[in-house]
Amino acid sequence: MNPPPEPRPARLTVGVVGAGRVGPALAASLQLAGHRPVAVSGVSDASRRRAAELLPGVPVVPPAQVLERAELVLLTVPDDVLPGLVAGLAETGAVRPGQLIVHTSGRFGAAVLDPARRAGGLPLALHPAMTFTGTRVDVDRLAGCSFGVTAPEELRLAAEALVIEMGGEPEWVAEESRPLYHAALALGANHLVTLVAQSMELLRTAGVAAPDRMLGPLLGAALDNALRSGDAALTGPVARGDAGTVAAHVAELRKHAPGTVAGYLAMARTTADRALAHGLLKPELAEDLLGVLAADQNTGARPASGDDDGAEGDSSR
Fold it and tell me: HSE of 28 in the Cβ direction (CA atoms, 13 Å)?
């Protein structure tokens, strides 16, 4: 005779407050693990479309009604909105004792949920270290994705279990380390998008018909090497100390894409410092290179014509 099946852990009703790119994907992932999405809130047409695609049949209701219906509530709103939302939900009595209140902000730990905790809620901070598109592909990308987890010690196992059910890998982050943790992710991921977009624009200007196909293998290899070897993976004219090449780069950028000069100079100086510190850049070559960068900095990185307003875009998010 076959042994009786092991009992499954309790399944939860799930609600989402904020149908941006993250919330519906996490709820859909929890649904695959056997939990039941029951309500979602969203204001914009885009939010409602995302909810309909990823959580078909789940009603869109106001936030207070989400909390009425759900045992596990995902607060997936922008960082600056989160403290006020939590305070408002607690003040209006929307939080129930024993209700799991989860936020997905990278910046905040569990302390931002203190108003909900005082109302009897169980606070968890579960931040997926992933970029989201707002489509079903996000659910697949959660497999193997690291989550920054912060929670009271007595809820640590519950927080880690939820991450594992979504296919993720829990990584414990101390409350006081959350801002630094989030800054590290933004530096690596958000700024990468800006750098790649600028690189593709420059390649198009140089006449390359398919910059994405050109950059794909190069950037993939560079990323793999960097993750494996860190600073030892540095290559290129800065790491070699080719001051003349760097000067030529800056001259061309100033001529064809002045909005990229400030970013190029900043990254070149940082790369030079790291290459020098790790013994990759010879001191005698570093002097000439840093001299080129300093001289160009003194001339001003922005063009005098004043036609570069906003050219570099906002890479802060």
Answer: 24
Distances (CA, A) of 122 to 35, 90, 247, 282: 18, 12, 57, 55
Distances (CA, A) of 127 to 32, 142, 276: 19, 11, 35
Interhelix angle 243-256/191-205, rounded to 10 degrees, is 80
Residue carrying the six token digits 């014509």: 305
CA distance 55 to 123: 24
DSSP category for residue 16? E
Q: Do the beta carbons of residue 202 and residue 178 sit within 8 Å?
A: no
Q: Does 79 score more than 70 pLDDT?
A: yes
Q: For residue 80, how many other CB atoms are within 10 A of its CB? A: 9
Q: How confident is the model over 52-77, as pLDDT tens digits?
A: 999 999 999 999 999 999 999 999 99
Angle among Cα 163, 105, 48 to the nearest 5 degrees reads: 90
The 10s digit of each residue's pLDDT in 31-55 is: 999 999 999 999 899 999 999 999 9
CA distances for 255 relative to 258, 261, 266, angstroms: 6, 10, 18
Q: Which residues contact 119 (CB under 8 A, 6 or more apart)?
A: 90, 93, 95, 96, 97
Q: Using CA of residue 53, residue 57, residue 58, residue 59, what is the dihedral sign?
A: positive
pTM score of the predicted model: 0.84
Neighbouring CB atoms inside 10 A of 277's CB total 10
3-state secondary structure of 140: helix
- The answer to whether 62 and 39 are in contact (CB under 8 A) is no
Cα separation, 279 vs 265, whole angstroms: 21
User: Do 70 and 39 meet the contact criterion of CB atoms below 8 Å apart?
Assistant: yes
